[in-house]
Amino acid sequence: MRNILTGLLLIMVTLSTGCNKISVGDRPDDVAVMETDFGTMVIGFFPEEAPEHVARFKELAREGFYNGILFHRVIPGFVIQAGDPQTKDPEIPRSQHGTGGSGQTIRNESNSHPHVRGTLAAARSRNIHSADSQFYICLEPQPMLDRMQYTVYGEVLQGMEVADQIASVERDRADNPLEPVRIISVEIMRRSRALSE
Predict the structure, then answer these.
(1) How many C-beta atoms lie closer than 10 Å to residue 89's C-beta?
(2) Cα angle at 189 between 59 and 52, to 5 degrees?
(3) Is 145 helix (H, G, I), strand (E, B) or coil?
(4) Residues 118, 160: contact at Cβ < 8 Å?
(5) Which of 2, 40, 163, 195 is deepest in the core (most CB within 10 A)?
(6) How many Cβ atoms are within 10 Å of 93's Cβ, its own excluded?
(7) How many angstroms separate the CA atoms of 73 and 84, rounded?
(8) How many CB atoms sit inside 10 A of residue 92's CB?
(9) Are 26 and 10 in contact (CB under 8 A)?
(10) H-run or E-run covering 188
């Protein structure tokens, strides 16, 4: 009965806000379990501070959008970045990695969360409302990014050693790994289940 009431409440919220991004059964404490070539990261979200970014990431994850995407920018001591679907296509030149997205931009939701180690934030161009599917994870605190209105919408709860390993691979002059580092899959699941496995 409780699950039915929760589902009805979410449907009512969706209808009243006109937002079609809320999934029935979605929970604010759901997490993303990201399997990579180097292991697993569990990512938590900040839905109260960045609801549109969180909803869009979850939506893309459930669609399988991130499955097979490469980390196209890795800088030790700074960030690792992914989310460009063009990186799945070996016919697309490496020089174009980092220029693609899902085709749906999100308005800026910058907030008070600082860029600390493990921060998940939206990559974008100079236009603060140009964030799409690309994201980065901070390897160390980056206070300079706090002043640049990037949207922080989550954090790595488990698996930062995986991010460190990704950052340690050999890369070209554009900080693109010489050997592909893949996101195998991203699954949205209950926090309690993800952190107990």
Answers:
(1) 11
(2) 35
(3) helix
(4) yes
(5) 163
(6) 9
(7) 11
(8) 15
(9) yes
(10) strand 183-189
Token pair belonging to 91: 């016919």
Q: What is the pTM of this model?
A: 0.87
What burial class does residue 4 get, using C-beta atoms within 10 Å of its C-beta: 0-12 exposed, 13-18 middle, 19+ buried? exposed
What DSSP assignment string belongs to 4-64?
Answer: HHHHHHHHHHHHHHT---PPTT--TT-EEEEEETTEEEEEEE-TTT-HHHHHHHHHHHHHT
CA dist., res. 66 & res. 31, Å (int): 15
In whole angstroms, give the CA distance from residue 152 to residue 44.
11
Burial label for 78, CB within 10 Å (0-12, 13-18, 19+), is middle
- Distance (Å, rounded) from C-alpha 87 to C-alpha 185? 15
Q: Tens place of pLDDT for every residue, the chain, 197 residues?
A: 444 433 433 333 333 333 444 454 578 889 999 999 999 999 999 999 999 999 999 999 999 999 999 999 999 999 999 999 999 999 999 999 999 999 999 999 999 999 999 999 999 999 999 999 999 999 999 999 999 999 999 999 999 999 999 999 999 999 999 999 999 999 999 988 888 76
Helix, strand or coil, per DSSP, at residue 82: strand
